[in-house]
Design brief:
heterodimer, A: about 280 residues, MetI-like fold, 2 domains, 10 helices, about 0% strand, disordered C terminus, B: alpha/beta, 9 strands, disordered N terminus
Chain lengths: ~280, ~280
């Protein structure tokens, strides 16, 4: 490329070595790293110089100590919460997808049920947590159920949008060769909806973590939500913050698993276009 | 459809598809709106017929009637000696739209084979794929069988759509502005390919188009459609020598036909403005 201007953006075009990639990663992440370090140092200084009590706002170092001191308990709690999230998520996925399929396949059912689903969505689900505890006890079941009622909706909604997004022209083509409604649904609409479904999954997975924590707040004997509540009644604020960090890590972990799933399930989606149009 | 209209015979027995006194009307907010009226059309076997006219003249509607997607309000339609629905069921009709309508997760070959797979489950997967591969080759996509739609240009995607229609081995190809979304050069390339396909397969082709140039180059017969009510106002026979190609543009009759078509279209357009 003889006309490439020197020093411009064009110079970064082309194959890069491992070191070049690392340098590029650093360039992208450096601002975030710097801001984070600055914020932590400022936080630490304000707490120390302002003599703020550690049970009101703990310094980053105090949180780190709490993390290290309670590593075993936090690990166990994270496992309990992650299990609730996982089971709740799988259930939401199955129910959410099945509901969308039935709504699209049997229009009369869709017309009957859709307003009810929307109405149900206006109920603040958090308020259901105590009732689920009352009905199903302190173990896994009420948390999974709470996750389900929170998380199935974005899955159903996105799946529905994806199923409906098939071009009319294609449906006409399918009908013209005598395709059955089931063939149109399973061979065209369903695969067509997968990228949209994955968008819904990514929203739902963060809802699942919220559902698990709220469920544990309402009544539990284990889990990160339980640790947070227990520690705050004991004024062990550093442990509360430590548990919050672990909750975030669980959430981020699930989110990345869902992104990985997306790459595996819909490699043909345009977002992951690795090849140029030629 | 009235009982009387249904008994009217199609005039020419040789016609491959045609309509007799066809009318299409929709009811929009309680008001009857006539889209097509008094359409008599005979399309001979092996003909390449273009329907041309301003937007809203009902040319796509007419094509949809042939495809069995719209029921006539009055009059009769025959496709290959039977009703459009029957013709479609017997796979006598292949459809190509402006949008290629490819499945993004299937390769060019998978897309070309897809409709036949659905249509005829008695055929083995291998036989279907072989036929689809042959058709991809016919439309000039020999090397692109394993590519996904997003790896293909707009013109190539449309070629896959044509291959998919041909894989069904229909007698009649109905094309609704198949090159409408393509750039001028690609469009011209596609026209030449379509001529070649038509000459090699001997299918009857009905093409809806906006392009005067395309209509003259490709067709044996051009039906100019007018407005209010939409109907066929003029039929031109295009007697340029076959096979056609780039040299057809140099034929003096080409320019004359173009001018004549342009005049007819502008005239019907002017009528529309007055009617408003």
């Amino acid at each position: 490329m003889s006309v490439a201007p020197s020093g411009g953006e064009w110079t970064t075009v082309g194959p890069q070595g491992a070191t070049a990639r690392a340098a590029s990663w650093l360039r992208h992440s450096l601002p975030t790293l710097l801001v984070t370090v600055f914020a932590l140092v400022a936080w630490e200084l304000i707490i120390r110089l302002g003599h703020v009590s550690t049970y009101i706002v703990p310094a980053p170092t105090a949180i780190a100590q709490a993390l290290a001191a309670n590593a075993d308990d936090l690990w166990h709690a994270a496992f309990v919460t992650a299990r609730e999230v996982f089971i709740g998520f799988v259930l939401s996925l199955v129910v959410g997808v099945a509901l969308a399929l039935v709504i699209v396949r049997f229009r009369w059912f869709g017309r009957a049920v859709y307003p009810l689903i929307v109405f149900f969505q206006t109920v603040p689900k958090v308020a259901l947590a105590p009732i689920f505890i009352l009905w199903f006890g302190y173990d896994l079941a009420p948390k999974v159920l709470l996750i389900l009622v929170i998380a199935f909706f974005p899955i159903t909604l996105n799946m529905l949008a994806g199923l409906e997004a098939v071009e009319r022209g294609f449906v006409a083509l399918m009908r013209s060769v005598g395709a059955t409604e089931n063939e149109i649904l399973f061979r065209v609409r369903l695969p067509h909806a997968l990228p949209q479904l994955m968008a819904g999954v990514k929203i739902a997975i963060t809802f699942c973590v919220i559902g698990a924590i709220v469920g544990e707040f309402a009544g539990a004997s284990a889990g990160l939500g339980y640790v947070i509540q227990f520690a705050s009644t004991q004024l062990e604020t550093p442990l509360v913050f430590a548990a919050l960090i672990v909750v975030s890590l669980v959430g981020v972990g699930f989110y990345y698993v869902s992104e990985l799933l997306e790459r595996l399930i819909v490699p043909w989606a345009p977002e992951f276009d690795g090849t140029d149009r030629s | 459809m009235s009982a009387l209209a249904a008994t009217l015979p199609v005039r020419h027995a040789a016609a491959h598809l045609g309509t007799r006194d066809l009318a299409i009307a929709y009811t929009v907010r309680g008001r009857q709106q006539t889209v097509l009226q008094g359409v008599d059309l005979d399309i001979a076997r092996g003909a390449f017929v273009s329907l041309i006219g301003a937007s809203g003249c009902g040319k796509s509607t007419l094509l949809k009637v042939f495809a069995g997607l719209i029921q006539p309000t009055a009059g009769t339609v025959e496709v290959a000696g039977v009703s459009p629905q029957e013709a479609v069921r017997k796979r006598l009709v292949g459809l190509v739209f402006q949008d290629a309508n490819l499945l993004p997760w299937k390769t060019a070959l998978g897309n070309a084979a897809f409709l036949l797979e659905i249509a005829d489950k008695s055929l083995g997967r291998k036989a279907v794929r072989e036929r689809a591969a042959e058709m991809l080759e016919l439309v000039g996509l020999r090397g692109a069988a394993d590519k996904l739609p997003r790896q293909l240009s707009g013109g190539m995607q449309q070629r896959v759509a044509i291959a998919r229609a041909l894989t069904l081995d229909p007698e009649i190809l109905l094309m609704d502005e198949p090159f409408g979304a393509l750039d001028a050069i690609t469009r011209e390339e596609m026209s030449h390919s379509l001529l070649e396909i038509w000459e090699r397969t001997k299918k009857t082709i009905v093409l809806v188009t906006h392009s005067i140039n395309e209509a003259v180059l490709l067709s044996t017969e051009v039906h100019v459609m007018g407005l209010r009510p939409a109907r066929i106002v003029e039929t031109l026979r295009v007697e340029l020598p076959q096979p056609r190609g780039a040299e057809s543009f140099r034929d003096p009759r080409f320019g004359a036909l173009e001018a004549q078509l342009r005049h007819l279209l502008l005239e019907s357009h002017a009528h529309r403005r007055i009617a408003r």
